[in-house]
Amino acid sequence: MFPKLLLLALASASVVLAAPAPPTPSDTQILQYALTLEYLENAFYTGALDKYDAKAFTDAGFAPWVRARFEQIMDHEKTHVKFLQTALGSAAPQACNYTFPYNDPESFVQLAMGIEGVGAAAYLGASKYISDKDTLTAAASILAVEQRQVGWMSSAVLKEQPWDGPFETPLGLSAVYSLASPFITSCPSSNPALPVITLPAFKLPAASPWPGATISLTFDNPNNASPTFVAWFSGLDVVFTTIDGNKNTVVPTGLQGTVYAGVVSSDTMPLADSDMVTGLTIVQFPFDSMAAEVDNA
Ligand SMILES: *[C@@H]1O[C@H](CO)[C@@H](O)[C@H](O)[C@H]1NC(C)=O
Fold first, then answer.
1. Rounded to the nearest whole angstrom, what is the distance from the C-alpha of residue 97 to the centroid of ligand 1?
2. What CATH number is given for 202-285 in this structure?
3. Which of 40, 186, 189 best tests ligand 1's pocket when mutated (most atoms within 8 Å of CB)?
4. Residue 86 burial (CB < 10 Å; 0-12/13-18/19+)?
5. Which CATH code fits 4-186?
6. Residue 264 pairs with which residues in a beta bridge?
7. Is the pLDDT of residue 297 over 60?
8. pLDDT of residue 36
């Protein structure tokens, strides 16, 4: 009896000690957050296209138009940076230093598809915080282009599915930042704080796990959240799978395309940043043109 009561007391103490929920971010904070991601994308494309010339792309097996289109995408990102800098004026943060784990044109393209998808999910997830309607339209206009870029990379270049289903996936601010922050090595100390909490990194044992398979997870659980679940973000839906005492979970069936997975302490929607135990990882469930699509709403 006593240990159980003690556990309950500890559990409620941890609730009291948890950080207060961050206030709703302002439009300025959302634009600063967006500019932070656009700086990252701009540095990513500029660095890769500086490194790999037209011959490097064709030697890697890509048609000549692939690199040329990536130059157009690089120009889009530069334009997004300028646009957001202008909108923010003196509130604009500065660019950071970055590191990107590609080592040839092929791994660059794979990473580009991941980064663009996260960028689009960031705009979609942040849209609910934007109160000024014209700002919302501008953000939606950028989002639409980023999503076209993802569709072009995944289908025309990588010959995979051009979309994931009837709905795009919105992601929370901290969830997105957990996917972007590994690429950021240092930022000017004068930059404003972003409206995010830092989450432990999370990876699955395979980037394309087999639906229905039992997989064993490794992750940090700094606040000893219990029970824990894996949240699989797919379109407007989140599928939850329970994590057992051996840190095993069962990969859901019926997911398609790019899905984002992370450990959470609640299986109830809507999820808040404070429900995230870890950051997210990108999971792929490729499907071919003859597959019946799952309506993941
Ligand atoms: C980026 O790296 C350079 C070279 O290491 C360093 O001089 C500079 O201060 C760094 N900038 C930021 C924003 O951290």
1. 6
2. 2.60.40
3. 186
4. exposed
5. 1.20.1260.10
6. 229, 276
7. no
8. 97
Provide residues with CB under 6 Å of ligand 1: 96-97, 186-188
12 has pLDDT over 50? no
200 exposure class (CB count in 10 Å sphere: 0-12, 13-18, 19+): middle
- 11 pLDDT tier (thresholds 50, 70, 90): very low
Band (pLDDT 50/70/90 cuts) for residue 295 is low
Residues 68 and 123: beta-carbon distance below 8 Å: no
Task: Look at the chain and count its residues.
Answer: 297
Distance 189 CA to ligand 1 centre (A): 11
From the CA of 185, give the closest atom in ligand 1: 14
CATH 2.60.40 segments of the chain:
202-285
Place of tokens 């972003």: 194
Q: CB 106: neighbour CB atoms within 10 A?
A: 15
